[in-house]
Records
---
Amino acid sequence: MPEIQSRDSKESMSAMSIDHGRHFLQVPGPTNVPERVMRAIAAPTIDHRSPTFKQFAGSLLERLPRAFRTDSPVVVFAGSGTGAWEASLVNTCSPGDRVLMFETGHFSMLWHDLARRFGLDVDYVSGNWRSGVDAEILADKLAADSDRQIKAVAVVHNETSTGVTSDIGAVRRALDDADHPALLLVDVISSLGSIDVRCADWGIDVAVGGSQKGLMLPPGLGLNAISEKARTASKTATLPRAFWDWQGILEANGDGLFPFTPAINMLFGLKEAFDMFDEMGWDNVLARHVRHGAAAREAVAAWGLELQPANPSEYSDALTVVRMPEGHSGDALRGVILDAYEMSLGAGLGKLADRVFRIGHMGAFNDLMLAGSLAGVEMGLARARVPFRKGGVQAALNMLAEPPTEKARAAAE
C-alpha cells in the first residue's frame, strides 16, 4: 500500500514525523470516513452480476431516496460530483436551451462553466460570494420570461467555497408563484447528510449528490435523484450522453443491476453508512450539524474575526468559512497549522484564494473533534501572528457543554 502523505508540498512532506500524531482532516470534503465504513469497503469484491449482488444492490437502491427525502429513484454513478453535474444537464437539456444559474461561489462557477461548454445558453446572475440565491431576482427573471424559454434553473444549495446555504424552499416558491415550467436542478453535494434536503417538498427535479462529504464516504460516487418531470424531459433532451444516460441505468437497476461495472466496494461502504444513519437517526445527524455549526461560529465571534457569509439566515452548518484580516494570508495560516499541529483546513477557492480559511465539520464528526479543530485554529492564529482575541475555544466549549438536543433545538430556532 502506498504511503499516505497529508502535506501540501514536498518541503512539508519531508518535515513529517511520527511526533505529529494522527492527522486532523478538517477540510469540507473529502471528510473523515468512519472505521466501520472503511472496513465495509475493504470486504472482498463480488460478482456484480451474481444473485448476491442483485439482492444487495436492489435493497440499497430502495433505501437511497430516503437521504433525499423523496420517493423518486436515485441513480448512482461511479464518478464524482462533477460527473453528476454533467448528468443533470445532459439528461434534461438540448443544445441552445436557456439555463438560469446564480453565482454564489466557486462551485456555482464550475457548474456554469460546464453548462457553457455543452452549448447551453446560460443566464448567470452575478453575486458577491457572501450571499445565496436571491429569490426576488429569480422571480423577476421568471416574470420577464413570457415565452417560457428558461428550460432549467440550476442552483447550489450549500456553497462550500463560501459557507453560504441558499433557501431552496424560496426558489421553489418563486417558480410556483410564476407558474413557470422550468426544471429545478440543485447541487446538494455538501448538504446531503449534513443539512436538511427535501427534494419532494421543494419540488427538486434533479438533486446532484456526491459521496465524499456528509455521506461519510471517500470520493467515488456521484448521485442524481430524479423526479418524474425530469425523467419525462430526458426523453426529448438531445445533448450527447452515453455513460451518464439515466435510462439504461434505471432499466438495469430495476433488476438490481448496472449497465456498467459499478463501484462495488463503494456501494458496500454506502450501505454501511446508511446503517449508521439509521442507528443514529437522520434527524439527530442533522441536529448535530446545527449544533456544531453554531459552536464554530461562537468561536469565530469570540476571536473577533469575520465570517464570509453576510446573512445569518444563510450560515452553513456543514462548514465555517472565516475571512482573514486585511494584510494576512489564509494560505500562510493553513501552512502554519498543518506544520505545527498536523491539521488540514480548507483553502480559499477562486475569488477567495488566500483570503479565507475553511473549517469542515460535516460527516463523521463529534464534539471532541470540533474542540480539537478549533484549538488548532486558535493556536495557529497566535503562532502565525494574526490579530485576534483569545477565547474562541472556550466560547465553543461553553456551548458544547450543554445537552445536545436542547442546544441544537435552540440553535435551529
---
Amino acid sequence: GTIIVAEGTSMRLGALVAALVVGATAARAETTLRVMSFNIWGGGGNEGKGIEETVAAIRAANPDIIGIQETRLEGEDCTAESCPAVGTSVAAALADALGYQFYEQNKVNEALWSNAILSRFPIGAASPNDLGVPVDVGGQTVWIFNVHFDDEPYQPYQLLGIEYGPAPFIKTGAEAEDWARRTRAAGLALLTSDLASADGAAAVFVTGDFNEPSASDWTEAAVAAGQKPVAVNWPTTRTLMDAGFADAYRAVHSDPVAKPAFTWTLRYDEAATDDHPDRIDFVFARGSGLKMTDAAIVGEDGPRTDLVVMPWPSDHRAVVAEATF
C-alpha cells in the first residue's frame, strides 16, 4: 500500500511539474518585444541640431531594443567611396535621455559605421566581431545584431544609371546580385560568423542599414506594376531569409505592390531621376514560435510613413517591429 501511495504521489508530483513546465512555456510564448532599426544621421548633428528630435522619434516608436546606425557625423571629406565618421557618438546621450542601457559598437570593420545598441533590458558581452549583444529579457536570452553595410557601389543606382562612385552601370538582375555580393560579402561574412554566438537564444534580431534592398520587394510583380526596373533576388536579405529569419516588415505587410515601403530617401521626389526610393533599413527576426505581430515605417508626415513623427530628424525613415515568442 505504501508503495502504491508513493507511486501515486510521484505521479501527482510529475503531473504538477509537467503543468508548471507547460505554464512556464505558455508564459514565455507571450513575451512581446518591440525592436527598432534607426539610421539617425548623426542624431541631428549633420544639420547642426541636438538630439531632441531623435529622442522624440524613438519615444514615439516605443521600442524595447534599438539598433542605431550613424551615431557620429559624416566628415567634410565624405565621398561615395570613403566617408569616415567624425566627432563624438551620441549613443550615450540618447541612452541617458531615454533611460535605456547602451552598447557602443566600436570595432572598425565592413559591417559597422558608428553603430550602437540601446535596450530597456540588461546587455551582456558582445559577439567577436562586435556586431551583436545578448539581452536579458526577464530571464530569457535574446540576441540583437546591428549592422551598417557598404553603400558603394549601390546597385539600384547602377541599374538606373545614377552616378555614384566609379562603378559601371548595369542592366540585369543577375548583374545586380553579383555586384551586391562583391560590395557586401565581407560584412555579411562577419555577421554570419557572429550569429553563431546566438545559438540557443529565445529569439534573435538583426537590425541595420543594409544599403541593399530586400529580395521581398524587387519581385516580378513589382516589375509588372512599374515599381522596379528588374527583379532582383538581393543576396544579403536572401541569405538571412534562407537562415530562417523573417523580414519583419514583409511578414506583416506581405504584398510589395499593394504596400510599397521606402526608408531611403525621404528627401527626394519619388519621380526624381537622380535618386530612387527604396527599403534598405530592416528588422529581421528568428526564434522558435516567434511571430511578427506589427511592423511600421516611422518617419515624416507623408504617404510612405505608417507612424508619423514631426519634425523628423534623419535622412532615413526608421522601422519598428513587434514580435511575440
---
Amino acid sequence: METEYATRLAACYTVYNGIELLEDSINSIKNNVDEIIIAYQTTSNYGEINNDFLEWKEKNKEYHYVFFNPSFLGRKDNAKFNEANKHQLLIQKARKLKCTHWFLSATDHLYKHDEVEYVKKEIKKNNYKTTFTKLKTYFKENYYCLQPLEHYYMPFICSTDVNIKYCGWSPVKVDAAIKFDKKYTYKCFSEEEILMHHYSYLRYDIENKLKNAAAKRNWENKIPYIIDQFNNFKEGDKFFIYNKYDIVKCKPEFSLENYYKNKC
C-alpha cells in the first residue's frame, strides 16, 4: 500500500564560493522542487572574506536565504563541524517552510530531472526517511570525468524528520558533515537509477577553492603544486587529489551554459 507523499521538497544549498556554477545547478533541479533555500556565508571556515555572493543574492530574490556565520573553535576539524551546523540550519529552515523533504546541494551538484522524479516516486512507494546516491566527478571541463566512480555516496532526498550530526550515522561512506543523528530507514540507489553529477574541479578561481574547501587539511601544504597540475593538465595526466583515479573523456551530460558563457 502506498503511503501519502507530501509534495513539498526543498533543495538546500550551501554557498561560499563557486557561484559561477550555481545557476546551472539550480536550473537542473528547479522543476523538481517546491522551494530553494540557500545558506550563504561571506566568511569562509578559514576566515577569508568574500562578498561576491551578495551581488548574486540581490539579483535572485525569489529564493529563501539563510545567513551562516562560521565559528572558529581552534579544532583541526572545525571546517567540517561548521558545515554540519550549516546543513542542520537548512533543515530547520525547510521545516519552517512546511517542507516534508529536502536534499543538500553545493553549487557544483547537478541532477537529471527524470532521475529525481524516479527517486521521488520510490520514496512515495516505500516511505524512506533517507536516500543516497553515487556521484560522477568532473575535472576542469564538462567532458572530463573520473573513472571509476568515487567510493562514497551523497545523501539525497530525506525527510525533514531527520537531523544532521557531525560524525554521526550513515549506512554507507559519506562525508562526516552530512551524517545523521541516528539510524533511519534508507535506500541506496544504484548508479543506473540516479547519479549526482559533481563538477568539483570546474572553477574560475581554483586557488580560492583549494584554500577554502572544508577538506583543505588533506592538501594544505601542496596547494601551489596542485594549482600547477591543474593549469597544465592534459589528457592522460594524473591529478594529485585524485591520484587513484583516471581522468578520461566522457559524454557531457550538462552543457553548463551559464558557466561557460561567463567564463573569461
